[in-house]
Amino acid sequence: MNGRVLIVAGSDSGGGAGIQADIKTVTVLGGFAMTAVTALTAQNTLGVHGVVGVEPEFIRQQIEVVVGDLGVDAIKTGMLHSGPVIETVAGAIRDLTPGVPLVVDPVMVAKGGAPLLEPGAVDILRDTLLPMATIITPNLPEAGVLLDRDPPGRDGMADAAAALLALGPGAVLLKGGHLEGDDIVDLLAAGDAAPRRWTAKKIDTPHTHGTGCTLASAVAAGLAQGLALEAAVSRARDYVRSAILAAPGYGAGHGPLNHAHRIEPG
Q: Is 153 among the catalytic positions?
């Protein structure tokens, strides 16, 4: 199906999340993945053991050379660990790729609990990058941070999504994996239309490392391939769920998905 996706995110040395998960996801879904690496992490299924940031000027250079030569059909941002990095990425997207669909995954904390976003950078993310986004993909704790309130529960998801829409993105995919109970609810809100909800049974497994990165990149791949937003989200959810069910079981902690697992075209 093709579709060129530029991924602006950090590297995960364990291969389960970050740039590595993004590349695998876009490739399996038939797209072409390109990258601008924002940070290097020493990471495995037990956690993040070290982070080395990339200079903002070099992040912009990566974006410039990719856009100038290869072209871009969609952009996905992940780990943007500091205010200067967020401002640089937002400026590059604004200057170089106007009108290109932008998926913003507001990465804040790794699966094992390590912070991936400096506390002072939240306001910059909220004010600078979110209003540029075609869609943002926060989980419930991230939504709480962006809204400066407690994370929403099941009954508060629609209100939280509406409040996030008021920050300026075109759409919000609020992910309910942190909900109590046996079910997961994901909610897609866009414009004045009634939100779309997906409900599924939770999968009892520790192998969920990289689900957020994977979902956002799958959505970006769909948009790059010309899918409508709801169709791109629906396919992305199917892909993530199948990749969790087929997880290889690697590592002693939060293990990776099976990104090579293909879903039937729908």
A: no
